[in-house]
Design brief:
seven-stranded mixed beta sheet, alpha/beta, 17 strands, FAD/NAD(P)-binding domain, binds flavin-adenine dinucleotide, 336 residues
């Protein structure tokens, strides 16, 4: 049997793509062994909450703002118009996958070993069988499989653990050049983690990788699309990836619907996400803040300068008007 679309990976990118395609009547299969715990701080950002419904099944706590610190200087940003959510990541992924299956997507709990693109179809070799499809979406996150098919290869290394501490309502970030530590409040405890671009921090905990270099050069071929982490869709500034995974999964589904029904080229995918995702600005801010002097002044201004505080809130909650990014860079540069 041949599928219209096979999706590899049931994270936020793959599950939403499967949900959208199966709801539109396409014969859709999602393949994931579903046997790995996802290492994630579990913050559904303001950007996510503005666009998507958030379900109480996986929410652990509302987040009211962020506390930033650098070398003992502490700045606090209370969100004015927005809220973020701390979630249980396993429940979130299970919820999204269930929606895909309820909409008619087939699920194979299996590992994909290789993907072979032919003129007339895509051949997907799993541990147990070979599956044929007209198109495939590679949404296998940071994995050997994604890497084999053009996926991202440069990461920040993260270690995180649960700590039994009274949770607050703020997301806490301790900044240092080349990384940061975080504390995310959960229902009854907190998750604490550290990321570094130089290798796994030498602290106990579970390990995970975050793509940091922005999108890969090419996210489409004749019959496959790369979505989510596999494509490098993570903000280089703050490591936000769930929103981009979900949104790229939606764009991938939309592109493939148009390819199946109208023979449209898969290059449409790249045109759409490039018009929406502004990773360049995020990378630029991140580069500016890799300088110790700027970073120190940045946190001090957040603490002392209300106007600057609001600008950083806009950056963190992604409420930046693309036309105003020049103004933001000039503000940060003036800190030197
Ligand atoms: C420590 C840490 C903290 C983070 N915190 C946040 C945060 O607070 N907020 C935020 O927005 N982002 C955060 N991120 C980033 C976020 O987790 C990712 O951007 C997001 O999960 C990407 O979704 P995805 O669907 O692309 O991939 P994933 O969620 O990684 O899903 C990929 C799926 O593919 C499957 N898979 C892999 N290989 C194969 C194969 N060969 N065959 C079949 N299936 C396969 C896996 O089992 C997995 O289920 C964090 C990341 C890390 C490492």
């Amino acid at each position: 049997m041949k599928y219209d679309v096979v999706i590899i990976g049931a994270g936020p990118a793959g599950s939403i793509a499967a949900e959208k395609l199966s709801a539109s009547g396409y014969k859709t299969l999602i393949i994931d062994p579903c046997n790995k715990k996802k290492i994630c701080a579990g913050v559904l950002t303001a950007q996510y909450a503005r666009k998507y419904e958030v379900n109480e099944n996986y929410v652990e706590r509302k987040i009211k703002g962020v506390r930033l610190s650098f070398k003992g200087i502490k700045g606090e940003i209370s969100y004015r118009n927005t809220v973020e959510y701390s979630i249980n990541r396993d429940s979130f992924d299970a919820f999204n996958l269930a929606r895909a299956v309820n909409n008619g997507s087939e699920l194979k709990k299996n590992l994909v070993l290789s993907i072979n693109e032919k003129d007339s179809c895509v051949m997907i070799q799993t541990e147990k069988d070979i599956v044929l499809a007209d198109y495939a979406i590679i949404a296998a996150g940071v994995s050997e499989l994604s890497q084999l098919y053009g996926g991202t290869k440069q990461y920040a290394y993260c270690t995180q653990q649960v700590k039994y501490r009274e949770p607050g309502d703020f997301f806490e970030m301790d900044l240092f050049p080349g990384g940061y530590s975080w504390i995310v409040p959960k229902k009854d405890n907190v998750v604490s983690g550290t990321s570094s671009d130089k290798g796994y921090p030498d602290i106990p905990g579970e390990r995970g990788l975050i793509p940091i270099n922005g999108p890969v050069k090419r996210t489409f071929s004749n019959r496959t699309l790369l979505a989510g982490d596999a494509a490098g869709f993570v903000s280089p500034f703050d490591g936000e990836g769930i929103y981009y995974a979900r949104r790229s999964g939606e764009i991938a589904a939309q592109t493939l619907s148009r390819a199946i029904s109208g023979n449209n080229p898969l290059s449409e995918y790249e045109n759409i996400w490039k018009s929406e995702f502004d990773f360049l600005s995020m990378a630029k801010i991140s580069r500016l803040l890799s300088n110790n002097t700027i970073l120190e002044a940045f946190v001090r201004e957040i603490k002392d300068n209300e106007r600057f505080n609001k600008v950083v809130e806009d950056i963190l909650t992604k409420e930046i008007d693309k036309n105003k990014t020049g103004y933001i860079f000039s503000l940060i540069r003036k800190l030197i």
